[in-house]
Structure formats: C-alpha cells, structure tokens
Amino acid sequence: MLRIWRMSGKFRVGVILIAIVMLAGLVQPLVNSLFFGGGDPLERGTYPIYLPISREHLLGTDRLGRDNFALLILGIRYSLVVGVLAGITATGIGIVVGFIAGYMGGFFDALLRSFTDMLLVIPTFPILVVLAVFVPRLDLPVMALLLAAFSWPFAARAIRAQVLSLRSRPYVDLAKITGESDLEIIFTELVPNLLPYLGLGLASSIVGAMFAVVGLEVIGLAPGGIASLGLLLSWALSWGVMAQAPLWHMILAPAGVLTILFVGLNLINIGMEEVYNPRLSAVTGR
Questions:
Q1: What is the predicted pLDDT for the residue at 5?
Q2: Measured between alpha carbons, how far is 134 from 219 in angstroms, rounded to an integer?
Q3: Which CB contacts under 8 angstroms, 24+ apart, belong to 107-116?
Q4: 150, 125 in Cβ contact below 8 A?
Q5: What is the CATH number of the domain that holds 32?
Q6: What's the domain count of the chain?
Q7: What does the pLDDT read at residue 93?
Q8: How far apart are CA 152 and CA 192, in angstroms?
Q9: Which one of 58, 126, 266, 274 is most buried, by most CB atoms within 10 A?
Q10: What pLDDT, in 10s, does the model give residues 171-226?
Q11: In terms of residue numbers, what domain contains 246?
Q12: pLDDT of residue 141
C-alpha cells in the first residue's frame, strides 16, 4: 500500500477525496456543535422554511425548517453506515468463497463457481425493490444485509481469479514442499499479496452499496425517516414539484457528494492499475 501511495498521484487524490467524505460523516455531531451551537438544526421548525443560501445556512433550509447542510452531513453518516455494513459483509463472504474455490479447486471450485454464476445472472435491483416493499421491518442493518446478500458474488468471483493466479506461483510450491498447511499458506503467502486488492474490493463494495441504497431511496423504497443521501434527493425532487420551483441546491449537494465518491474510487482503481498492471506500468514508466 505504501508503494502505491508513493508511486501514484491518482491513488493519493482518490484516497483523499473518499477520506474527506467519510470524515465528514464520522464527525457529524462535532460539525453540528460547531456550526449550530445555539439549537438543533435537525429539529423541525427550528428555522423558517426554504431560506436561501447564506453564511448562517450554507445550503439553505428545507420544507420542514431544518438546515440542509446539517441534513447533508447526517445523510453522509447514515449512508456510510449502510455502505460499511454491506461492504464488510459482502467482502467477507466473497473472501471466504473466493479463497475456498480458488485454492481448493476441483469439486469445491465447480460447486461454488456454479452457485456464484447463478446469482450473478439474477436481476438484483428488481428483487431488492420487491424485498424492500414486503420486508416488514426495514431498517439500516436489514437494508445492509439485503445488499450484501446480492453483492458478494462479484467479490467472490474476482477474488477467486486472483487466488487461482497466485496459487501457481513458485513461493506457494516452496511453502508446500516445506510442509506448511493450507491455512498457513493462505494466511502467510496469499493474503498478504492480496491485501491491496482486498482493500480496493472493500472500498468498491462500500461505495456500490451506498449507490444502491440511493437508487432505492430515490424511488421511495428504503427505511423511512432516515435522512440518508438518497432520501435527501427524493425530498428535493418531491418538494420541488410541490413548491413549483426546482430546489437545485438541495439536489446538487447530495449528488455532488456521490460524484466525489465515484471519482475518488475510480482514481484509486486507476492508480492501482498503473502500479500493479505490467502493461500500464511500462507505458507510465513506473
């Protein structure tokens, strides 16, 4: 990881962009106390409705008299909770399935690969929409588990391909000759070489889960009353229709955060490709 940080400027920029967004969500209570020490900006009726952008209200206020900037920071926090829970769960399942299929091979590989491929061809979003409608208690942890249940095959398939490549390396054959067990080879030889790739996979799963929740929330199929980024977009669109005026600042703020996350993740991916892909390394001279 240090090698990538030193050699790729795109990777550094991507990490910084994602870190800024995540830090904003993590310190949300501190932001509220610093900017709104005199009252609760998330309480309905605290301020007049639809105030314009000003020094006191960086993004104005909404239809319920709440500060939009405070709602945006809270939305980042809730979206991160869903993304992290879904990303960790999906990546964890993908690691277990990918390593078993890639390293063991044979029957286990055929069985797990067939099951993974079967899940990959299932249209995920329509199923999530149906489940979101019929699940009686849809909260953040349940939503995260639903997303993880349909996203882990992507991680498993990618990790399996990497393990298949690494298990044929000379240092793995040497470890087998010296009498190391399969678990020792996996944790001492394979996992350390895959850590950067696993880290990128986790980041991709987190951001992907956040975007999936946004898609459900925009059409009104997500936990109600939780001001995440997708729900902020849904509110802005619906309130703009009722107010007969486009609420551009309420739309662009969460959309801008999602854009930053997307750009940051792609820069990280490009930076890793430049360092670890031999063909790109030759072109860029790294």
A1: 61
A2: 15
A3: 109/160, 112/156, 112/160, 113/157, 113/160, 116/153, 116/156, 116/157, 116/160
A4: no
A5: 1.10.3720.10
A6: 1
A7: 92
A8: 21
A9: 274
A10: 888 888 888 888 888 888 888 888 877 877 887 888 888 888 787 777 766 666 67
A11: 2-284
A12: 81
